Amino acid sequence: MHCSTSLLTAHHPIPPPSTTARRRLSPRMSLNPQPQPPDVQSSLLSSITKLLWGPSLPPGLLIFTVRTAWHSTWRLMMSQLAPSDPSGAYSRPASRFRAHKLPQSIPTPPHHHLHLYVGLPCPWAHRTLVVRALKGLDDAVAVSVAAPGTDGSWEFRDRDIPGPDKGVLVPGPDNANKRRTLKEVYGLRKGGYNGRSTVPMLWDTKTKDVVCNESYDIIQLFNSELNGLARNPDLDLSPPGLKDEIEKWNGIIYPNVNNGVYRCGFAQSQEAYDKAVNQLFDTLDMLDVHLGSSSYLCGDKLTLADVCLFTTLVRFDLVYNGLFKCTKKKMLEYPNLHAYLRHIYQIPKVAETCNFLAIMDGYYKTLFPLNPGSISPVMPSGCGHEALSRPHNRDSLSLTDKTAEMIVS
Ligand SMILES: N[C@@H](CCC(=O)N[C@@H](CS)C(=O)NCC(=O)O)C(=O)O
C-alpha cells in the first residue's frame, strides 16, 4: 500500500517494485544453517565425496564441480536475500506502509501513542533515531531496539544488552507489545500481515496498527508533525526555502550512496557491480569537493538530506568498504567527507544513536551469502567513537550554524 500522491515519494525516489525483480522465495531462515563442529563437518564432507566420486577423482573435475555447485547455491541464496533484475542489479522492494500525515487520533499530550521499532545496524532505522534525538522526541516517541537473529529477521532480547559505550542505544525487549520478534508485532495489526517485517517501523499503540515503515516518511513526520511534543520544535530540518534543494540532494544521494552501497554489495553480476561502484565513488568524489566549502549539503543548515547521508557514511569503513566491496577508497581517505562525518557525529545526542559493534555484528553475522563463515572482522581504526570525536575544524565554513546550540538547549 503506497501513499498514492505522497509528496514524499518525490523527495525520496524509491523505485517501485520491479515486475522483473525476483521474488523473495522464503524467509532468511534457510540462509543460515545451524553450524556443525568442524570435525563433524569435514568427516561428513569426505564421506560424501567418497560416496559420489570414489577416492581417485581428478582434482580439476572436483574443483569444477564444487565451484559450479557453490555458485548455483550462492545465486539461489542471493535471490532470497536481495531481489535483482535480469542484469543482476539489486532491486530494492518498496515499503508497504507509507504515511505523510499522522492519523487524527495521534498524538495528543500527555497520552503518547507512537512507538518506534528500530534495529541498530540498519541505516534506514538510524535516520529515524537521529531525527528523534535532534528534535527531542525521546519522551514523546518510545523506542524498542530489536537485534538481528541468526536468520536475519529482527528479534527482541529479554533485557537490555549493555554495550561498551555508556549512553549508546542497545538492543533490548519489545517495550510496547512484549513480543519475541518484530514479525509477531507486525502480525498484531488488524488484518494481519504477511510481508517483510522491516525496521524502522512506527507503531500506534492505541489503534494497534502500523503507522509507517518507510524511513523517509518517518523522519518527515518527526520533523514537522510532532512539534507539540518535541523539546526542540524550532529545529526545522526541512525548511520551506530549502525543500527543493533537499529533494535535489536526496535524488542524488539515495540511488548512488544510500542504496548505492547495497547495489554494490548485492550485485549479482560483474556489470551490475561495476556500474554501482563507479556511480558510488563518482558521487562521493563530488560530495567531498562540495563539502570542502559548505558546512552541510544545503549550506549553513543541517537538513534531512544530511541525516540521510550521515547514516551511510558512518557505516562506510565499518562494513560497506569490506563486506559490500566498496573498496575504491575508504571514508578516511576523503578529508572533507570524513570531517563532515565527524561534524555531524559531534552534534549533541547523535553519538548515542551510533552503536558501532552492533552495526558490525549486524552486517557480518547475518548476511550469510556475503560472509559464509560469519566471522566479524576487527573494527577498523578511524571508525569508532574516539576517531569520530577528533576535531572537525569546520567551524569556519559557517557563521550561522546554530544546530548544536538548539539541540543542547
Ligand atoms: N525503504 C525502507 C527500507 C528498510 C529496510 O530495508 N530495512 C531492513 C534493515 S536495513 C530490514 O528490516 N530488513 C528485514 C527484511 O527484509 O526482512 C526504509 O527506508 O525504511
TrEMBL record:
Write out the coiled-coil annotation as residue ranges. Answer: none
Its domain of life reads Eukaryota
Instruction: Please name the taxonomic classification of the source.
Output: Eukaryota, Viridiplantae, Streptophyta, Embryophyta, Tracheophyta
Q: Give the molecular function GO annotations.
A: glutathione transferase activity
Q: Which organism is it from?
A: Ficus carica
Where exactly are the transmembrane stretches of this chain?
Answer: none
Record's SUPFAM superfamilies? GST C-terminal domain-like (SSF47616), Thioredoxin-like (SSF52833)
Polar residues bias located where? 29-42
Q: What is this protein called?
A: GST C-terminal domain-containing protein
